[in-house]
Amino acid sequence: MSHKTKRTTGVRIVCSPNRLFSYAPHQWGTKQYWDWCERQAAEWCAEFHAFMRDHRSRDPVSMDVERDTETVCSKCGERWEEDIIEGTLCCASCGDPVDVKETTT
Ligand SMILES: [Zn+2]
Predict the structure, then answer these.
(1) N or C end of the chain: smaller count of CB under 10 Å?
(2) Average pLDDT estimate for 47-72
């Protein structure tokens, strides 16, 4: 028997410099804005790698863990989707019958 369950499906460490995008010379959300942000981020990463190499910079840096969660089937691990097969509620991916008592989310 399978059931719907919430599970971590991705983990990243994200390093964010403070106020990197605060002074964008373009209106937020425009193509020019995002192009500028991409260039700023690439430049900052290059500088950060140089810092890691030579330890000259003392700029404040925050690091965070970002996590993806997804509702998945407890048996096959695929994204949760229900189907009714021959009158029985099943996982649409693996076809295993759903244990309704175990399904909490
Ligand atoms: Zn399944």
Answers:
(1) C
(2) 76
Taking every pair of Cα atoms in the chain, the longest distance, rounded to a whole number of angstroms, is 67
C-alpha 91, offset from chain centre: 24
Burial of 53 by CB count in 10 Å (0-12 exposed, 13-18 middle, 19+ buried)? exposed
Tell me, in angstroms, the distance from the centre of ligand 1 to residue 68's CA. Answer: 19
How much distance in Å is there from the Cα of 74 to the middle of ligand 1?
A: 7
Residue 82 alpha carbon to ligand 1 centre in Å = 9
pLDDT digits 0-9 by tens, 12-47: 888 878 888 889 999 888 888 988 998 998 888 888
CA of 36 to the centre of ligand 1 (A): 43
| Domains in the chain: boundaries | 4-91
Q: Report how far ligand 1's centroid is from the alpha carbon of 73 (Å).
A: 5
